[in-house]
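Q: Hi! First time doing this. I have a protein sequence and I read that you can turn it into a structure. Is that right? Here it is:
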Amino acid sequence: MIKYNELESIKTFCDIIADMIPEGIMFLNIKEREVVWKKATKKFDMDIFYVGSKIPNDSIACHAMSEDKIVTEKIPRSLYGRRLITIAIPVGNESGKINGCFSAVFPKLHPVAAAFEDFAPILADMFHEGAFIYMTDLEKVAYRQPSEKFDMPSISIGYEIKDTDIAFKAIKSKQPQFIEIDASKYGEPVLVVNHPLYDEDNGTEVVATLGFITPKKVAFQLREISENVENGLTDISKAIEQLAVSASEIHTNEQQLNSNIEEIITLSEEINEVSTFIKKVANETKMLGLNASIEAARAGEAGKGFSVVASEIRKLSEQSISTVPRIKKLTDDIKMKVTEVSEKSKDSLASSQEQASATEEITASVQEITARSEELSKVSKLI
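A: Yes, that's right. Below is the predicted 3D structure, encoded as structure tokens:
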């Protein structure tokens, strides 16, 4: 119990230490059920308590007075909109009669909230592109910390949480939430992460959230580039596959052409053999014609008709003999041209083989680049 003659000293002491308490504090002197003195800090005040205001009958101060003992109570958020810790000490006269109370009211902050102003400025500037860190209670944003490189002006202290906000989802699900948002909402792509914070006493009730927002411009650019590269490589790969099919067909056609040319060379050689045979037959026919002329001459007048026939046979054999060199020259020319074509065909065949091999190597390289592009896309999602 505090005696009346001690109150002024206690008030003076409270005036001195109040602003030294980091989270803030509010002191109340209550007589009967009326507030007769109040000391609040800039960081913490409750407008419902003022000099002249009445306190409820079921308040902690009334309990302390009625029970004549110091009472400490944790007040849930549902009562005053925020969690509090209240200490009430009975006040009485020299005879021990209790008719007042001296109370100290503290905001009950989550340990993360208590340390926010210490760690948030350091942490926000540790990100390469900057970061925005914020804390919410169950209804609104209570703390915010931008970095030098990045800020979210639309998220101010007192901003009321909407059911579309990630903080709302973290509170309802009691699970960390991650979401990537494109530039349409905040003007640039961002990654938003929000973690629920639990009551430090029971560990099951969510009392606040801690959120991080980081710009993802570089990551989105990397992802866009990797997707464009991947799409381009896919198109190139399809074109190369078609080229490979064409190269295979060309190679097959060249093989068939080379085979046909070899057959033509063989036929040319056979024609030369036929020409040689014709020349041989013509020579023999000429000899037969000559022999026939001789026999016709021996026969005298009776052999004149046969002599004419023999003469014509010799003429035909001589014409055949004279034609054979021309046939041979033509076949030799054909053979020479075909040989040239055959050489070129072999060169084309070798080139088509090299083209097919090169196409396979290019396809393998494109597949490797595509795989690297997919890895780049995965990395960009982790940045």
